[in-house]
Amino acid sequence: MPARRLSISAASDRASIAAYALMLGVGTLVYNVLPVFLGAAADSLALSHGQTGFLGSAHLLGFGGMPVTTPLWIHRLCRRRVACVASLFSVIAFLSCALCPTFGVLLVASVVSGMAGGVLFSLSMLGLGEAQNNERAFAVGQTVAVLLAAICVWTMPTLVILRWGFGGVALELAAVEFAVACFAPWFLLTRPRAVDSSGLPDRTRRSTQLIPVFTAMVGFGFYCLGLAGLWSFLERIGKDAGLSPLVVANAFSIDKIMVLLVCVLTLWQANHLGRRLPLIISCGGMILATLMLAAFRGPLPYIVAVSTFGVFWAYGFPFQASIITTADRHGRYASLVPAFIGAGSTMGPVVAGMAVSDGSYANVYILVSVSCVIGTALLLLPAQLTRTGVSNSLDK
Asked: What is the spatial distance between Cα 386 and Cα 395, in angstroms, rounded to a whole number?
């Protein structure tokens, strides 16, 4: 029998959706605050650029690598226990960073925190994807993730780093992880869904339709490749244009406010525009942001361009995730999404760095536009590739 779908209107299901949303928030927290985390480590511990880059890559390696194994075990284990163990390992990793901040410890802790984040993200993809209105459920998760990231981004530079340096940053992340580990997993089901002798959920006895699922996930990876490439150079673009550090900082602060607003907007209209149109709007908005960055002159156009980039990036996520989890009718492969995000996000800065030519970012803008178009096209394909069941729900 298919698993019961979670309803956003039922009180018990709202609790589960809230728990999965918190897991999405903490699972992606380090990913979302990685520039601040790495900057604090570099300043406090006098790390070289190479060492700082290794720390970032170590986290992304764990974040994208661990979810590759999830189809082998995630349906065999209790989700509550998996969430608790992942959160515990994440807390231990950050406490290790605070108490023994040597480069070797930081490197291992970054891998462990990335693995734990990838597992929590995988659980949230499965749980939120089971909601009856999974676009709105993913919008809830994204709102929580952006809110947690915004709180950390605002408090770390102004309150934590000035007083306690990198150790304070690590302790703040450990505190957030611990708070979620204390109560969020207890809202989840204590048993996994029923599986057959092969370890697959009951409904995988029907056609698995892997092509639509993996086509959409590859598209998501392409999309993240371009976005991560541009994201890694946004600060440099502003400074190379002669803008002051204060203007650049204000641009990112305003961006966070605008992203929170668009998350609320997505919650309101999640089931009004279907899935296809929001993906096209998101892609068009990303191309518009690159055009604005290529043409901006002065502080205000830069701030508007950065905010446009963040807004349309955030706007597309619930619908991209919904496409994948709906196409994955058996609920087995959606847990691989963090692996594709991690792969695209790891490759993006490298490819973008090679695309910069003589201080010109024109090739980076082209890279972003092309990757977004390819990614969106691949995300839109499942409706055509799946002829029964999923096609009717995706073809909106």
From this structure: 10
Phi first, then psi, for residue 329 (nearest 5°) are -60, -30
Which tokens in the block code for residue 393?
A: 């729900």
Q: Tokens at residue 232, please? A: 């890694």
- Backbone phi and psi for residue 360, each to the nearest 5 degrees, phi listed first: -95, 135
Token digits for 375?
């990614």
**End-to-end Cα separation, the chain, in angstroms:** 26
Residues 6 or more apart whose CB falls under 8 angstroms from that of 381 comprise 212, 215, 216, 219
Average pLDDT over residues 226-230: 86
Backbone angles phi, psi at 361, to 5 degrees: -105, 15
Does residue 61 surpass a pLDDT of 70? yes
Separation CA 260–CA 63 (nearest Å): 24
What domains can you pick out in the chain, each with its CATH number? Answer: 11-187 (1.20.1250.20), 205-394 (1.20.1250.20)
Work out the mean pLDDT of the chain and round it to a whole number: 82
Say which residues have a Cβ less than 8 Å from residue 191's Cβ, sequence separation at least 6.
78
- Residue 281 makes CB contacts below 8 A (sequence gap 6+) with 312, 315, 316
* pLDDT 10s digits, 282-324: 999 999 999 999 988 889 999 999 999 989 988 888 888 888 8
Q: State the sign of the Cα–Cα–Cα–Cα dihedral 108, 338, 223, 33.
A: negative
Highest mean pLDDT among 30-34, 48-52, 376-380: 376-380
Q: Decide: 279 and 315 in contact? Cβ < 8 Å.
A: no
